[in-house]
Amino acid sequence: MHKVIFDTDPGIDDAMALLFLERHPEIDLLGITTVFGNASIETTTRNALFLKREWNIKAPVAKGGDVTYDAARPMAPWPVVVHGVNGLGDIDMPETIDDVPLDPRPAFQFIIDTVRANPGEVEIVAVGRMTNLALAIAHDPEIIGMVKQVVVMGGSFEKNGNVTPAAEANIHGDPEAADAVFTAPWKVVIVGLDVTIQTVMTRTQMHDLAARGGPHLELLAKISDPYIDFYSQQVEDGMVVHDSCACVYVVAPELFGLRPGSVRVVCGGIADGQTIQKPSQQFFPPSPWDDKPDQQVAMTIEPVKVVDLVAKTLVP
Ligand code: BDR
Ligand code: CA
Predict the structure, then answer these.
(1) What domain range is 140 assigned to?
(2) How far is the CA of 281 from the centre of ligand 1 (A)?
(3) Where is the Inosine/uridine-preferring nucleoside hydrolase domain (predicted)?
(4) Mean pLDDT in each 10-residue stretch from start to end of the chain (316 residues)?
(5) Domain containing 91 — which CATH number?
């Protein structure tokens, strides 16, 4: 069994990824930690509680903070054109979810406690800003050696970003946090735009899941509809399943081709939030990549198989 903490900013593709984790038979979802990103922390946390209730998810929800890792950094605006003002495609939903309790701990403390309770076993799948993870290792660096792996949806290495030509949203929203996570001595697998942008669930596939999967899938399809409209301007008639790609890596790593090398994040200037991996050639020292641990960056993916696995897991 894979023991997973899901660090997320729901978010439409986050919602699909959450249902994938909940339903995959080899995944034990230990907790959901929220981060700002696709909407404010209040909104993403409300959305996590809403999805927990609607989908009968047992895992607790712990709320993240409302500032970046470097609190002096101005917050990036929420991408309302992508996920809607309410972060879930502007479906009708309550302002607050009062009948589902939040875990009393801040997200970073939940991560620390859960890792310490399961040494060597926890896999963290982080599909929003890396703020909670950076805070967790800053507060308790010993957990770095106790985590099995961190799988991140974020960054872009040989393609443009999606917020600026240089930067992908999850990294651009908190570059200092991402740099802290990527340069820590633990195993990080980065599943970025290089592979996620190719991985599309078509509108027809989504409608088919809704038709066969009952109210839970009908809800997901309703949430996803405006997201499909948005992505249909860029790809075929469907949605890019960014966050599900990172979740699929946990159970089917053979569907990805990885490239090793240390990774740094540009913090400031016109390339703020750009992710750069050191290639294997030699450079003149000193460089900011020296003495940093090698991480793994996904450069290839089998998109059809990834989407099939997502669909088969959502509706067996
Ligand atoms: C990432 O940004 C968010 O909008 C998505 O949920 C995904 O995690 C893609 O750049
Ligand atoms: Ca996300």
Answers:
(1) 2-314
(2) 31
(3) 4-305
(4) 98 98 98 97 98 98 97 85 90 95 98 98 98 98 98 97 96 98 98 97 96 98 93 87 98 97 97 93 82 96 98 97
(5) 3.90.245.10
pLDDT at 216: 98
Q: Check: CB of residue 30 under 8 Å from CB of residue 59.
A: yes
- Nearest one of 136, 123, 125 to 180, comparing CA atoms: 136
- Is any atom of ligand 1 closer than 6 Å to the C-beta of 10? no
Quote the pLDDT of residue 96: 95
What ipTM, to 2 d.p.? 0.99
Q: Which residue has the tokens 């820590």?
A: 184
Distance from the CA of 76 to the center of ligand 2, in angstroms? 14
Q: How many CB atoms lie under 10 A from the CB of residue 73?
A: 17
Half-sphere exposure of 188 (CA within 13 A, CB side): 31
Question: Could you list which residues have their CB under 5 Å from ion ligand 2?
Answer: 9, 11, 14, 127-128, 243
- Strands in 96-252 per DSSP E: 122-126, 147-153, 188-191, 200-202, 238-240
242 part of the active site: yes
Atom of ligand 1 nearest to the CA of 9: 6
Pocket test for ligand 1, best of 44, 78, 153, 200 (most atoms within 8 A of CB): 153
- Would you call 2 a catalytic residue per the annotation? no
Q: Scanning the structure block, which residue is given the tokens 């992710």? A: 275
Q: How far is the CA of 170 from the centre of ligand 2 (A)?
A: 7
Query: Count of domains in the chain?
Result: 1
What pLDDT was estimated at residue 281? 72
3-class DSSP assignment, residue 119: coil
pTM of whole model > 0.90?
yes
Q: What are the two backbone dihedrals, phi and then psi, of residue 277, each rounded to the nearest 5 degrees? A: -100, 140
Of 294, 266, 261, the closest CA to residue 279 belongs to 261
Q: Supply the pLDDT for residue 232.
A: 82
Q: Is 47 in the pocket of ligand 1 (CB under 6 A)?
A: no
